[in-house]
Q: What sequence folds into this?
């Protein structure tokens, strides 16, 4: 069998493919002789300057952040003060809005004045989030960054009379909230006061933090709250009378893991 | 785009060049130029005698070029700077090399000790057979010379990135070499008050020799001979041509007639020109010949610098004296066409005289961090 010219070409191409090509470069380069009689002092000082500059930038950023926080707190305080002043002037709308308190025997203006004196500079404190806090906020359809429920005590002992109450137990819920505005607290109080009677309102102030607490006697708690309390193992029970109040501060301590 | 800036403090001017890159053919792209003249004797033979004058010129040149006052490369070149190749362990870092050389205690400069030296090194090549050893190019300069350059920068409120050996910079500007080439060549940079002869082998420096005396000596000889000003003598210098033969003394002197006086003046001029040029050519030839101590004589000599290389007949006389082919070349650089650079163009092409005068500054702008 003879080899055709095409086959020879093919085999030659294969050989060419396998044979490494030797490339002679005619490229001319710049000679590499370079010296530095400063011993790289500039590079070192530039590196040092760069590090200093970066540190300065970080320091400035931190300073700017701190300044921003301070200014925002100051502006909040100013805003609260101006709000408080507005409340002090007491518009008709305000009185109408908090008429619920008056009807329940609590003087709305007293409440307002109390908050004015106590909450001129409010800020949020650590928020202990438990299911019941969230539940309360959700139930009351209240949300927002201005107010946090920071503690809550549930006491099933208070007043109940006979079987009627046992079926629909009255509960005393002691709520402590912190807020960044008086309006938020008042709104919150208004909402919860519709659930029962708000009593023993106190306000304390510690530095920039004001804590407002009050007791809500819920003569007719919503069924959802009762259910939720039941889910959490808090049930109305006459035998609980001897146990004293149940404090729900730490879900883990009460076996009500979130 | 910001490039690298080279600063050359010469005897007549401070030259600032910004190079933005190198094109495919190897030409450095000069984007900005700053030239500021120096008063007479502010810098002589590379030594800065008046740091204040030099600093004023430096600030002016930088301003003229519109480049940053920081991060430029400046050159140092005096008759006291020296260069030699040493074989050192490859593992030594740049700073360790200096410590090693100082520990050895052998002076690098010809007339000053190690304690007066500032040492700079670069990795020339690693030994092919034994990779643990490398050829290191070692240059030393008198610490006073380096301090003078730094003082000029401080006075001009400038901050250089590096102080390089001007001879190496001139070589970078004038030479493009095939990496594998081992050809030997000399570059003769004739300045106004100094001559630097740099001999290379392939890509690397072999010897560097800087001697005092340059083109100004010819001008001074003419001025003294004809009793005219330095400026007039400088203008006259470039209208003359060196005779093919070496100098002869004028015979007639003051006893000539009026017609003869003209001839005598011509004879005096020719004599002054030829005799001073002979001295310079002799000095250059000796420097080239002395480079043969490190190996064979160069195969070619490249002449640059405005001190005398453009003097008609100078190239031929040097070629006759050394017996080596001499060429006058311009550096591997192109000036970018822009409104700012328009004055450096002649008939649409970069002025070769400008390019030659900027050779060292251009080479300095091609500096890279030494290994």
A:
């Amino acid at each position: 069998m003879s080899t055709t010219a095409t086959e020879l070409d093919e085999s030659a191409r294969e050989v060419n493919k396998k044979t490494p090509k030797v490339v002679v470069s005619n490229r001319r380069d710049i000679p590499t002789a370079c010296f530095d009689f400063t011993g790289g002092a500039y590079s070192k000082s530039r590196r040092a300057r760069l590090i200093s500059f970066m540190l300065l930038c970080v320091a400035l950023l931190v300073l700017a952040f701190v300044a921003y926080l301070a200014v925002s707190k100051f502006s909040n305080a100013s805003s609260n003060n101006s709000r408080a002043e507005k409340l002090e002037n007491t518009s008709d709308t305000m009185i109408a809005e908090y008429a619920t308190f008056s009807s329940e025997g609590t003087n709305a203006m007293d409440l307002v004045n109390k908050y004015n004196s106590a909450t001129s500079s409010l800020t949020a404190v650590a928020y202990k989030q438990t299911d019941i806090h969230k539940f309360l906020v959700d139930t009351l359809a209240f949300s927002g960054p201005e107010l946090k429920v920071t503690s809550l005590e549930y006491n099933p002992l208070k007043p109940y009379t006979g079987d009627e109450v046992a079926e629909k137990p009255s509960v005393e819920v002691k709520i402590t909230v912190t807020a960044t505005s008086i309006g938020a607290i008042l709104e919150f109080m208004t909402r919860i006061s519709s659930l029962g009677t708000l009593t023993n309102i106190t306000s304390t102030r510690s530095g920039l933090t004001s804590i407002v607490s009050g007791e809500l006697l819920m003569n007719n708690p919503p069924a959802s709250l009762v259910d939720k309390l039941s889910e959490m193992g808090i049930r109305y029970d006459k035998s609980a009378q001897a146990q004293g109040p149940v404090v729900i501060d730490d879900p883990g301590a009460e076996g009500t893991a979130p | 785009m910001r490039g690298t800036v080279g600063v050359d403090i010469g005897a007549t001017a401070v030259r600032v060049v910004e190079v933005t890159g190198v094109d495919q053919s190897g030409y450095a792209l000069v984007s900005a130029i700053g030239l500021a003249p120096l008063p007479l004797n502010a810098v002589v033979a590379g030594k800065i005698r008046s740091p204040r004058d030099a600093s004023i010129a430096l600030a002016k040149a930088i301003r003229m070029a519109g480049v940053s006052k920081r991060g430029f490369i400046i050159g140092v070149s005096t008759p006291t700077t020296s260069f030699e190749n040493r074989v050192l362990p490859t593992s030594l870092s740049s700073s360790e090399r200096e410590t090693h050389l100082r520990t050895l205690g052998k002076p690098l400069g010809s007339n000053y000790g190690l304690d007066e030296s500032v040492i700079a090194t670069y990795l020339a090549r690693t030994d092919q057979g034994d990779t643990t050893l490398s050829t290191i190019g070692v240059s030393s300069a008198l610490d006073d010379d380096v301090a003078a350059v730094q003082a000029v920068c401080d006075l001009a409120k400038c901050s250089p990135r590096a102080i390089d050996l001007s001879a190496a910079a001139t070589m970078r500007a004038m030479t493009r070499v095939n990496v594998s080439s081992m050809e030997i060549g000399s570059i003769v940079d004739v300045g106004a008050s100094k001559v630097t002869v740099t001999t290379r082998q392939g890509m690397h420096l072999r010897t560097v020799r800087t001697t005092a005396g340059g083109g100004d000596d010819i001008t001074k000889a003419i001025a003294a001979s004809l009793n005219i000003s330095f400026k007039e003598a400088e203008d006259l210098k470039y209208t003359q041509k060196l005779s093919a033969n070496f100098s002869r003394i004028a015979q007639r002197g003051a006893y000539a007639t009026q017609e003869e006086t003209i001839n005598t003046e011509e004879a005096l001029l020719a004599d002054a020109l030829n005799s001073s040029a002979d001295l310079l050519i002799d000095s250059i030839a000796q420097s080239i010949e002395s480079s043969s101590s490190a190996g064979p004589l160069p195969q070619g000599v490249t002449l640059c610098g405005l001190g005398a290389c453009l003097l008609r007949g100078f190239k031929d006389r040097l070629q006759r004296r050394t017996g080596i082919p001499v060429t006058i070349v311009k550096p591997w650089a192109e000036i970018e066409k822009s409104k700012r650079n328009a004055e450096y163009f002649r008939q649409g092409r970069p002025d070769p005289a400008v390019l030659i005068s900027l050779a060292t500054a251009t080479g300095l702008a091609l500096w890279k961090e030494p290994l």
Notes: Chain A touches chain B at residues 25-40, 42-43, 46 (CB under 8 Å). The longest strand of chain A covers residues 197-206.
